[in-house]
């Protein structure tokens, strides 16, 4: 295995490129999907794999301490630092849009929550794509095969896989009480959100090992790093895909202020995520033809779905001041509290520093009286802390936060390039709360939270709503409040969605091959036709596991076919400008 480190530069002119080499497979992006693909494809020792990552190695200590997400999000060492366009549904606000820029990708900076979603999510994928291999019953064994679950193997979980799933290592009295209040409101208790029906309230399982973050790099990439057929290059900013006619034959990237080209004998696999995968397709001439021509980009394949169908979960942060119970706000307020917390983690890998960003979860219906809502459409992330906004200090009084998000939004946004410069950030327009239905669900989500907080279990702590505030009461006011407090919970998907080849909005087929071209696949969260009902990291891992099976099967089939054909003439090497 060869590892190289390089840094990006912004100069964009026609220039000569150094040939990095020729590989069977080139994987762009060492996030969750890319790490899985690099591991699985390089298991075949007769193939060569190149993995390109724009960020650096995951050797920053705050990546591995669970609470360190506070120092990774918004940090150029680990985050792309994207911003959205001004959002009309959020009263014109611009949001930070974190995406991992490091080995492990967003699994190195996310909330570590292990969540598959609901059975109906995958059954809907199967219907939309007319492919039963994406149904719940078909993908459940794939989830289990990757998994190393704390409870061992059973009907729902696997053991011995690379993706470690553990219980959290601490509890808070305020969270226990919120759970009881939710049950008093009609939300049942659950000890497992991952059996296909995630209805209930309970603690999230997390991707940790002994209180330390377990990212995709540790799980999948490090075990493969001794393989001579795997080359990993960090600091390599992929700028464009290279096409020979309709076939993708390589990639151009920049690192250490040097321009490179790498050639692919079999396939290029785009695993850059829901933001960067459509960006790279458009930069390379694959996308809406009229849009690309307006930017002066030659069209390789006119695919109007590239960058469309963006879906994300919008969280509505509700915060409550409480009395008579301690929360992290005051536990960490003084130096001695911080010292105790630090010693707990140093000696035992427990305590607040081992906390995932959200510990307690709940799934519920936004309106139990609405017969059209047949399964939970809200997800809660409950935290024993509060602050005005992410990145600011905790409040100086005891409080908790109940963030609630609509897990099946009907709003659709887009991600497109605004310039042919590959180093310019894309235009991210989530289009939150752009439908009447989503605005109504948001109002109901705020109402449900207030009903939970008003339940008898929490009364002894005298909760007082400080965000968004009790002055918002009517439907119109609650919708405006949702726009005030809503923010991304970091689950963008769908911008290169899969579908049938005759679907004009589809970008990839059900084997994740880009429609209309050869030698190119997209394997990441962007291929989801519909967002899953929950956190999206582990579903992305499942997609990559399935894709690796498909790619390896296609190669075996191709080799079998070629063995029965005359040996082809050797092609002329591609010239490099």
From TrEMBL:
<feature type="region of interest" description="Disordered">
    <location>
        <begin position="554"/>
        <end position="577"/>
    </location>
</feature>
<feature type="binding site">
    <location>
        <position position="102"/>
    </location>
    <ligand>
        <name>FAD</name>
    </ligand>
</feature>
<dbReference type="Pfam" id="PF00732">
    <property type="entry name" value="GMC_oxred_N"/>
</dbReference>
<comment type="similarity">
    <text>Belongs to the GMC oxidoreductase family.</text>
</comment>
<dbReference type="InterPro" id="IPR000172">
    <property type="entry name" value="GMC_OxRdtase_N"/>
</dbReference>
<dbReference type="InterPro" id="IPR036188">
    <property type="entry name" value="FAD/NAD-bd_sf"/>
</dbReference>
<keyword id="KW-0285">Flavoprotein</keyword>
<keyword id="KW-0274">FAD</keyword>
<dbReference type="Pfam" id="PF05199">
    <property type="entry name" value="GMC_oxred_C"/>
</dbReference>
<keyword id="KW-0560">Oxidoreductase</keyword>
<feature type="domain" description="Glucose-methanol-choline oxidoreductase N-terminal">
    <location>
        <begin position="273"/>
        <end position="287"/>
    </location>
</feature>
<dbReference type="InterPro" id="IPR012132">
    <property type="entry name" value="GMC_OxRdtase"/>
</dbReference>
<dbReference type="GO" id="GO:0050660">
    <property type="term" value="F:flavin adenine dinucleotide binding"/>
</dbReference>
<protein>
    <submittedName>
        <fullName>Alcohol dehydrogenase [acceptor]</fullName>
        <ecNumber>1.1.99.-</ecNumber>
    </submittedName>
</protein>
<feature type="compositionally biased region" description="Polar residues">
    <location>
        <begin position="559"/>
        <end position="577"/>
    </location>
</feature>
<dbReference type="GO" id="GO:0016614">
    <property type="term" value="F:oxidoreductase activity, acting on CH-OH group of donors"/>
</dbReference>
<feature type="domain" description="Glucose-methanol-choline oxidoreductase N-terminal">
    <location>
        <begin position="100"/>
        <end position="123"/>
    </location>
</feature>
<dbReference type="InterPro" id="IPR007867">
    <property type="entry name" value="GMC_OxRtase_C"/>
</dbReference>
């Amino acid at each position: 295995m060869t590892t190289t480190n390089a840094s990006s530069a912004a100069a964009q002119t026609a220039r000569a490129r150094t040939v990095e080499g020729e590989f069977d497979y080139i994987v762009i992006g060492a996030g969750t999907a890319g790490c899985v693909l690099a591991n699985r494809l390089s298991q075949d020792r007769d193939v060569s794999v190149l993995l390109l990552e724009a960020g650096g190695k995951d050797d920053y200590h705050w990546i591995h301490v669970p609470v360190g997400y506070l120092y990774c999000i918004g940090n150029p060492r680990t985050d792309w630092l994207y911003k959205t366009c001004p959002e009309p549904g959020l009263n014109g606000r611009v949001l930070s849009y974190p995406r991992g820029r490091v080995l492990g990708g967003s699994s190195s900076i996310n909330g570590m929550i292990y969540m598959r979603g609901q059975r109906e999510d995958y059954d809907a994928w199967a219907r939309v794509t007319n492919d039963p291999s994406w149904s719940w019953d078909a993908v459940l064994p794939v989830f289990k095969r990757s998994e190393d679950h704390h409870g061992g193997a059973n009907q729902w979980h696997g053991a011995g896989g690379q993706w470690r799933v553990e219980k959290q290592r601490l509890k808070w009295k305020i969270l226990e009480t919120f759970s009881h209040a939710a049950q008093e409101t009609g939300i049942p208790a659950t000890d497992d959100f991952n059996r296909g029906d995630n209805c209930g309230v309970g603690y999230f399982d997390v991707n940790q090992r002994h209180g330390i973050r377990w990212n995709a790099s540790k799980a999948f990439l490090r075990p493969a790093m001794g393989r001579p057929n795997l080359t990993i290059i960090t600091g390599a900013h992929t700028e464009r895909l290279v096409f020979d006619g309709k076939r993708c034959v390589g990639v151009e990237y920049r690192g250490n202020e040097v321009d490179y080209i790498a050639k692919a004998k079999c396939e290029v696999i785009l695993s850059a995520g829901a933001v960067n995968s459509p960006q790279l397709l458009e930069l390379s001439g694959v996308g809406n033809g009229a849009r690309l021509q307006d930017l002066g980009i030659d069209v390789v394949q006119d695919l109007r779905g590239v960058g469309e169908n963006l879906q994300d979960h919008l969280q509505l942060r509700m915060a409550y001041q409480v009395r008579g119970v301690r929360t992290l706000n005051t536990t960490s307020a003084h130096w001695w509290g911080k010292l105790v917390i630090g010693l707990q983690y140093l000696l035992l890998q427990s305590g607040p520093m081992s906390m995932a960003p959200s510990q307690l979860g709940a799934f519920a219906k936004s309106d139990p009286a609405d017969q059209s809502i047949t399964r939970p459409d809200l997800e809660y992330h409950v935290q024993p802390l509060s602050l005005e906004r992410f990145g600011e200090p905790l409040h100086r009084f005891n409080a908790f936060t109940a963030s609630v998000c609509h897990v099946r939004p009907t709003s659709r946004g887009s991600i497109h390039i605004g310039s042919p410069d590959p180093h310019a950030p894309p235009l991210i327009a989530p289009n939150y709360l752009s439908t009447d239905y989503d605005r109504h669900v948001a109002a109901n989500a705020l109402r449900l939270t207030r009903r939970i907080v008003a339940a008898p279990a929490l009364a002894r702590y005298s909760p007082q709503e400080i965000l968004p505030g009790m002055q918002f009461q009517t439907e119109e006011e609650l919708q405006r409040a949702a726009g005030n407090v809503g923010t991304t919970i970091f689950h963008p998907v769908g911008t290169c969605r899969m579908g049938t080849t005759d679907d004009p909005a589809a970008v990839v087929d059900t084997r994740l091959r880009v429609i209309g071209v050869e030698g190119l696949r997209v394997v990441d969260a962007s291929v989801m036709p519909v967002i899953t009902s929950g956190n999206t990291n582990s579903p992305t891992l499942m997609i990559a596991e399935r894709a690796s099976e498909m790619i390896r099967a296609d190669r075996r089939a191709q080799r079998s076919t070629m063995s029965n054909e005359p040996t082809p003439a050797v092609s002329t090497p591609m010239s490099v400008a």
